[in-house]
């Protein structure tokens, strides 16, 4: 199986959250309760210890950068990775201290350790795979840095993750940075958006939905994990599920064109790298699957792959965007 499509689907490789789509400003400053105090948190079955507030945080995707900026910690971000060629957020660029370490994949061990981080915030544990040439969690620990993996991206959680796992990340990051008040405010905003979507789609007929990522002629489908939960919250019924054998061990699986035709979803949600990839996917679906109800009725909903990365504010945006695509008359 080609791992590249699955890696892109999960959003691990892709950065550059578009703040213009969130409808609210991102604050670069926030409360700093207990600044400098030693603290410890639980993350992916590990205890992370911080003798003081991190001062040199690395965001392993721009989505993690956005989370730290929203928490008022822009001045603590020294670097981000997997930028996908996009510029730093203005809140980071204006400070002039943060650098971009990589574009289309995690930075090498040497590059990451070279910026001397004391915290590395990542969407999944893949970014710490030593066999791929990345700095491992143990190597970072030895260099004085803790590695935090988004709750929805923990290995044991990846296939059963939910969008609300983000609230755990907000609480944890609020604790680590002494920004509990800001974290509570963001938690309220996130829950408020999810509650609004739930209210709007409640009682409506739930359309059948396939969530896909297309690369060339390869089609990968989502059948579990946080992306699966996004469809649920948005008021749709995914044609693939964790009960399917193909998704028993992993949230995504390459499928055949015949499988997609047999499922014949009413709506297709597909993740995109950029506008060119979005158009290529649309062209492919319209050319190869003209017989599908979703294609015939032009019920094709594009989602930025950045927004399905675990532990990012994009998770909230994606639920709302998908819901609008599934139930346009409810918004």
TrEMBL record:
Pfam families: Peripla_BP_2
InterPro entries recorded: ABC_Transporter_SBP, ABC_transptr_periplasmic_BD
Family: Belongs to the bacterial solute-binding protein 8 family.
Protein name as catalogued: Zinc ABC transporter substrate-binding protein
